[in-house]
Input
Amino acid sequence: MATTTWTFYAGTRTIGGNIIQVEHDGYRLLFDMGRAFRSDIPIFDGTLRERGIRDLVRVGVAPDIDNLFTAPADPKLAIALSHCHLDHTGLLPYVLSGTRVFLSTDTFRMLSALDEIGEGPGQTLDYTPLAYGVRVSHGPISVHFHRVDHDTPGASSIFIETPDVRLLYSGDLRLHGAHPEWTREFAQLARAFQPHALFIEGTRAIGEESVTTEAELSDLALQLTANSAGGAYFNAYRRHPERYLAFYNAAKQTGRTLILQPETAYLVHVFEGLADFAVWSDPSIQLSQPVRDWIAEKQIPSVTANDVAHREASYLMELTYDRFWLLSDIAPEAGGVFMHANGSPLGPYDPAWDNMLRWLEHYGLAFESIGSTGHASRNEICAIIEEIQPQVVMPIHSFNPERIGSTSVRRILPELLRPYTLASLADAPYPTEADLAPTVEEA
Ligand SMILES: [Zn+2]
Ligand SMILES: [Zn+2]
Output
């Protein structure tokens, strides 16, 4: 009888970009399909752009997997996606068109809406959207999804069964968002699934345990908007439409008009259905046909920077970094605030971060960080592992996977390109407290 093998092609020691292949009797399932930034290899950025997938494979940004990016296509190869973040979907534009892709219905909705605003994979893939709990077969490999809470709609864990193994991929998850019960329910279902191997994220393996919750973010957005003597600006990640409700409520309660970027407004309307807001208008803002049609059909009011100038205190405004030039038209008056809620640039590791702060300082806007992470803390992840009790845990999506685990669960720190089978799990050791402890630099 054929045995199942699984291989880690990327993402064992990075935040995101994890690509795992499960193979049984010639059938292959790959999950996810993202790009992660690594400090140990050269990368392409906004200025130095790749010419195509070959450049990405050569420098090591994309894995070299047969029939994935280059013909001939293989009908026995399929992809499963946990969620729509770029570190999980960034390579989709290069996947051979026609490749079968399993994903949750909301992830499909998000990728389609992103295509409509011009920010999606823009690909003719053979999408198979799946409701939670519904099984689909890819040859001998059976797949189903369960929802988890993360900072984007449709986020899922992936349950995989073959004739000889049960594998479980957590996707990205958290317990401090608006739906912690989704993540708790996942842990219960995962335990009942009795996985041989659990692949779980460890983004926050080191660092602070406590964070700003999504509810606290809403309160902060309201307080800072209410206390602003001038304009109230914010920057969030439009792939998380639910978070815009915090700014919508802050605008409502302070009597300000909410102004969104038109593309954001389009995405938010697909998922949340807001009313009472305006969108930015400027000759430099070029919109896709679906967004223009939608704005015209819904008669959404447009606001220009000149409309806002000298009346900033009447508005709560989404200001994305790529349109900071709006500030040069508005010329903000003293006393305004800029709330950073996980929009791009996301953190000091991004070269644009310092420039963002320079712009804000130049225009006298107070910088306030009010973000809420999409990831559970280290202790929460370790408690979930203990609850699930897999035969073996294999931590991924982490700079410090050795910090993720439990002394009561066998563990393997996965190695790239090494094929694992059920037999590989038999002698996996239980980590000791010392194995899980932070190293001197981390502590
Ligand atoms: Zn991720
Ligand atoms: Zn994510």
